[in-house]
Amino acid sequence: MRSSARHKRFKLKSEINVVPYIDVMLVLLIIFMVTTPMLNSNVDVNLPQANAKSMQDKKDPVIIAVDQGGQLYLTLGAEKHQPVDVATMKLKVGAFVKANPQVSVLVAGDRDGKYDGVYQVLADLQQAGVAKVGLMSAPESGAKK
């Protein structure tokens, strides 16, 4: 009788102890939670050079010009530029881009004008459904080729 009681007491367990695995998983989770925000702190931005070449586009681009006083001028395709208000610009550009999705939309701002005018045009174009917008500039007069 003693041998059967001793045999039951020292019987091997066939269960897996998962507590250490849970501890390791929680430590790894904390490490990843701490290090992930540090990975995204630096953003690489490729800025264009001052002596960049002009774009060669197959179609005539849509150009929205903002003068020093904040007045908007719109050039659609081969048309001459004409003064427009914000609502008209949104409607015309939105319809033109929906009809021609491959057309380039460019914003030209006056050098002496306020940045707020160009920024507002970019926001209005986004509301009109334009996905990609470029900024126009004149090449430097002293640029070497």
From TrEMBL:
Transmembrane stretches, start-end: 21-39
Record's bilayer topology term: Single-pass membrane protein
Lineage top rank: taxon: Bacteria
Family matches, as Pfam families: ExbD
Keyword Cell cycle included in the entry's annotation: yes
Alphabetized UniProt keyword annotations: Cell cycle, Cell division, Cell inner membrane, Cell membrane, Membrane, Transmembrane, Transmembrane helix
Subcellular location: Cell inner membrane; Cell membrane
Family: Belongs to the ExbD/TolR family.
Assembly notes: The Tol-Pal system is composed of five core proteins: the inner membrane proteins TolA, TolQ and TolR, the periplasmic protein TolB and the outer membrane protein Pal. They form a network linking the inner and outer membranes and the peptidoglycan layer.
Job of this protein: Part of the Tol-Pal system, which plays a role in outer membrane invagination during cell division and is important for maintaining outer membrane integrity.
NCBIfam families: tolR
HAMAP family in alphabetical order: TolR
Protein name per the record: Tol-Pal system protein TolR
Native species: Dyella kyungheensis
Taxonomic classification: Bacteria, Pseudomonadati, Pseudomonadota, Gammaproteobacteria, Lysobacterales
